[in-house]
Amino acid sequence: ETPMALLEVQDIAVHYGDMCALSSVSLAVEEGEAVAVLGANAAGKTTLLRAISGLVPVTAGAIRFDGDDITADPPHERVERGLVQVPEGRMVFPFLSVLDNLRLGAHAARARDGEAETLELALELFPRLRERREQMAGSLSGGEQQMLALARALMTRPRLLMLDEPSLGLAPLLVREVMERVQDIHREGVTVLMVEQNVAQTLKLVDRGSVLENGVVAMSGSAEELSASDEVRRAYLGI
Ligand code: ATP
């Protein structure tokens, strides 16, 4: 009776040499949901996103997207399916204009049709990027570069957008803005899986979350359940 999840991670393990970074991690994301992965430093959050993107191989388990087993597929094929990750750190091309950075996002075949429309949507969501569209990306502020990274990901027409700490290193006001834009993207119908250290704000945005501890899922629940949990409150909300 359960609907087929858009993303299904089943009992995966990831090793870096002898070191086990993830073990028996399972997670499902339904179409249209926003889901958070929480956890302390080195818990394995980035590793989980990289495994889903195909940037690190899994040593056990399976990953399915839209019902297909993609466990062994190379990263670019996952992007073609609409499984897109915005990496931690901004990674824009500093010597290209804002517009050219955005156009590069539409490189995947699935994004080329309708590129003009998607660009219009991206510039509507990010008016500051429209103002600065001819400027070199490297001349934008940190916050603007983060917005550009988000907008560029949108240009790929993602079905599932994975965000790795989109608010990292930003001032509180900008953290709020990034969160609002993520919410806008989610409202446009994009399914979201995000890693964030700003747990309080993240739990306002997502439907559900999982907490990683030392490479295993320590807890999963709705945003309400996690917000009410003593462990989450103590460890991540400072209460
Ligand atoms: P952070 O919040 O600090 O980014 P994280 O939860 O994203 O942490 P990961 O970056 O996934 O954690 O790291 C999980 C563990 O794997 C850590 O102990 C880390 O040192 C280790 N690790 C990560 N990447 C590599 C790598 N390329 N080679 C070896 N060990 C790695």
UniProtKB/TrEMBL annotation:
Protein name stated in the entry: ATP-binding cassette domain-containing protein
Any one GO MF annotation of this record: branched-chain amino acid transmembrane transporter activity
GO biological process assignments: L-amino acid transport
Residues annotated as signal peptide: none
Full protein segment contained here: 243 to 481 of 481
Family assignment from sequence similarity: Belongs to the ABC transporter superfamily.
Keywords for the protein's UniProt record, in alphabetical order: Amino-acid transport, ATP-binding, Nucleotide-binding, Transport
Species this protein is from: Egibacter rhizosphaerae
UniProt superkingdom: Bacteria
Domain ABC transporter: 7-239
